[in-house]
Structure formats: C-alpha cells, structure tokens
Q: What sequence folds into this?
C-alpha cells in the first residue's frame, strides 16, 4: 500500500501547545496562495500524517506519535514514542513495520506486548536476581542458622555480584565462574572459595530447574579448586593451661551481657552461635535445664538423609554456677527475648565477635583459643582428666552418636548422667580457677556413681 506523507519536519517542530496550525485563503482569494495561521485551542490536538500516523500535541507541550489501525473489524491504537526522541522519519518507519504486521495478519499491539514481556523477563533473570530468589525461597530451608545465612549472602555480595551480578544467568559461562572463584583463592581464602563455589552451584541447579538457564555453568569446576588445609579451632586442652585462662575470664570487666556470656562459655561448651542466641523462653531455672535448639551441621544432615532419627533439640543440664549467673542476668535482660541481646537492638542477639574480642582483651587471640575452642577443651579434659565416659560428652556436644546401628538404637538422653557430668565439670573448672592441683576423679561409669553423688 502506497502511503502519502503529509507532515514535514518543520510542521512537527513548530507545533505548539494550545495553538493549532491552520491553512487559510489569502486576501486575493486565490486557492493556490495560502498563509500559515494558528487558532487557540485549550486541549490536545492531532496533526495527521499518512497511513494512520499522527502527532498528538498535548497542552503541557509534549508531543506523542500514535498509529491508528483496524484489526478484525476493531479499531486499535499504538504509541510509537515521544518527539523529539522519535523523529518524523523514525515514526514513519515504525508505522510501516506495524502495517507489515497487519498485512501478515498479526495485531501489532499484541506483538509489542509480547516483546516487552520477553524483554522484561530477560532483564530480571540476572545472576543477582536469580540468586536473591534462591536465598529467599530455597536457602532458608537448608540454612544452619541466621548467622550462616548472613555469611552465605555476604559471599555473594562481596565476591560474585560485583563481577557477575548484572549478567544474565543464561549467558554466564564456566570460565566466568572459575575466574570469580580463583580471585577468592588468590587472596589465600581457599575454604571461602570452596564454600562460595558450593552455594553458586546450588544457585545454578535452581536456575536450571526453573528454566532461567539451560546448563549448569559450575559443572567441572570443583576438581580445579585448591583444597583448603583443614585445621581445628585453636583450643587449650590441658588443666594447667586452662587455669590462667579461667582466671582471666573472671577478671574480665565488660558489659554485664558480655561478661556473663564469657563466664558461661566454659561451663556450657555449646557452639558460639547457640550461646549467643540463647532465649529466656527455653530456660527453666527451677529444673536447672536449657532446651537447646541445635544448629544444623553436615553430620546431622547426612544422618537425616539416611533416614536416621536425629534430635533437633537437646536438654542441657545447668550446674548451680550457671543458674547463678543467669539469675543475676535475668534482672537485666529478662524482659526481652534474648539472654544476651545486642547493644544496638534488644531484638537481635549479641554480636558474634563479642566473646572473640573479650578473649583478645585478656591475652588470648584466635591463634591460642577461640569461643568454639571451649568445646574442644571440654571434650578433651572431661575424658582425659575427669575420666567421664566419652559418649556422655559426645551427647552433650550435640554430636551424632557413632554406633554400628546409628542413632536408631541409642535414643536415650542420659539426662541424669549428663546432669552429674555438668555439675562435676563446673566444680572442676572452679577448682582450676582457684589454683587447686589438677587431678583425675573417679570415673562415672554406672548408675551407682550417680546415686553416690546424691542426684536423687
């Protein structure tokens, strides 16, 4: 179809709001001689070009290109952009494209909506957006703790998003992932690199399953990563070395919250995150018990996948020394949720660096002893120096019991035995702190030892 174009570039450029151009006859009455004129109009008006294209001039001065057409007997209208971003020539080209679609039996309005939807879908499927979906929808189901979730998110934000965040996940290659992970290795952080890669692999599996990408760009990378050197948390495990550490802890002067947590750590030897997130709701000072919700770990997850019974909570017996510290602290933080609230907000637990900094203050940096090291101290000294059965300590540590038949035939809680163990351990620590000589106690092998201790 041949289209006769009517407007000129000058017509479009000179069009003014509220003044519509008109062509009027000259004074001589000649139809061939016309002079330009305008008429005031307090609304938008239309300047028509050929083939359904028109320029709409709005009272605020904006100028929009519109294309009007008929499809299946119904009238339709499409906006082709705003002038001067879209020139007269460009508007005509868009008009011709729309007409070509109409000639082929396609509604140009429908095709543009589909194109915009596809473009929007492409823009939202970046590595950052898909990862955030995974972190929000999937990862919380498997996260070990809120602190663990923060660490995983921080690895993405610090090491992967700056390089890959705005890239479409379908366009990211194996070489892109390898280069990002090797940058982390270049800092000497081999374990962080491996953990970051593991989370990245989970994101690509998630993206592939939902159709955001067609392949997993992390395949084949794991074998190329440097293996981190596994090392235990530094810990003091000898009585003669533990004595000055305990004395330093009791001489530490900090806030009541940090000081109390610092003193409880050796008595309870739970994980640092479990201690920080202790809640008053789960403490019964009358029964001398703490219902501890155990953090997730690899051993527990593997056992659960095998179908073994895995306890998510552990009843921790509290020695009288522990109850005394908690009773004093209850007058300070007892009205809140957390036993050890943070300084900035009582709705958040104490910072994970509080005990670490307290250890540094008394002369024990992370190379000598850590908050996690109190677990190793208890695990070693209770068995070696107090001669308490190993499986009781393992149970108190929240570890999966290693028996030929797994946990299925060993679900007893050993609460009485562990209560005696925790009281014996607390008294032993007090003796060390008081400077008494280190000596082994009689082994607690059977119920007779419990009866002699006047448990009942």
A:
């Amino acid at each position: 179809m041949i289209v006769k174009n009517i407007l000129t570039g000058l017509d479009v450029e000179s069009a003014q709001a509220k003044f519509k151009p008109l062509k009027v006859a000259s004074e001589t009455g000649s139809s061939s001689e016309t002079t330009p004129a305008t008429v005031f109009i307090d609304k938008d008006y239309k300047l028509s070009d050929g083939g359904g294209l028109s320029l709409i001039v709005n009272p605020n001065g904006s100028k929009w290109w519109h294309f009007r057409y008929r499809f299946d007997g119904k009238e339709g209208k499409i906006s082709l952009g705003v002038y001067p971003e879209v020139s007269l020539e460009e508007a005509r080209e868009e008009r011709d494209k729309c007409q070509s679609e109409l000639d082929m039996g396609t509604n140009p309005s429908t095709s543009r909506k589909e194109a915009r939807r596809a473009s929007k879908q492409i823009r939202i499927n970046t590595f950052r957006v898909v990862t955030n979906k995974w972190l929000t929808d999937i990862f919380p189901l498997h996260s070990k703790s809120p602190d663990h979730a923060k660490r995983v998110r921080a690895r993405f934000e610090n090491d992967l998003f700056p390089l890959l965040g705005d890239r479409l996940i379908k366009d990211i290659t194996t070489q892109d992932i390898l280069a990002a992970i090797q940058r982390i290795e270049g800092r000497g952080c081999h374990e962080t690199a491996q953990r970051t890669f593991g989370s990245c692999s989970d994101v690509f599996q998630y993206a592939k399953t939902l159709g955001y990408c067609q392949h997993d760009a992390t395949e084949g990378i794991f074998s190329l990563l440097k293996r981190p050197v596994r090392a235990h948390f530094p810990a003091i495990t000898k009585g003669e070395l533990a004595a000055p550490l305990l004395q330093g802890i009791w001489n530490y002067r900090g806030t009541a919250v940090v000081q109390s947590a610092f003193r409880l750590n050796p008595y309870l030897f739970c994980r640092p995150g479990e201690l920080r997130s202790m809640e008053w709701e789960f403490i019964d000072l009358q029964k001398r018990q703490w219902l501890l919700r155990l953090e997730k770990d690899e051993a527990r997850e593997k056992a659960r996948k095998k179908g073994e019974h895995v306890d998510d909570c552990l009843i921790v017996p509290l020695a009288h020394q522990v109850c005394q510290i908690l009773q004093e602290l209850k007058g300070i933080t007892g009205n809140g949720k957390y036993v050890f609230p943070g300084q900035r907000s009582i709705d958040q637990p104490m910072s994970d660096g509080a005990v670490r900094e307290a250890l540094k203050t008394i002369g024990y940096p992370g190379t000598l002893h850590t908050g996690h090291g109190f677990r190793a101290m208890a695990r070693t000294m209770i068995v070696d120096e107090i001669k308490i059965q190993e499986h009781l300590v393992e149970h108190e540590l929240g570890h999966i019991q290693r028996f030929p038949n797994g946990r299925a035939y060993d679900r007893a809680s050993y609460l009485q035995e562990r209560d005696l163990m925790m009281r014996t351990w607390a008294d032993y620590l007090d003796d060390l702190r008081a400077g008494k000589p280190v000596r082994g106690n009689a082994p607690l092998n059977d119920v007779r030892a419990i009866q002699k201790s006047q448990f009942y």
Residues 127-224 form a domain with the DNA polymerase; domain 1 fold (CATH 1.10.150.130).
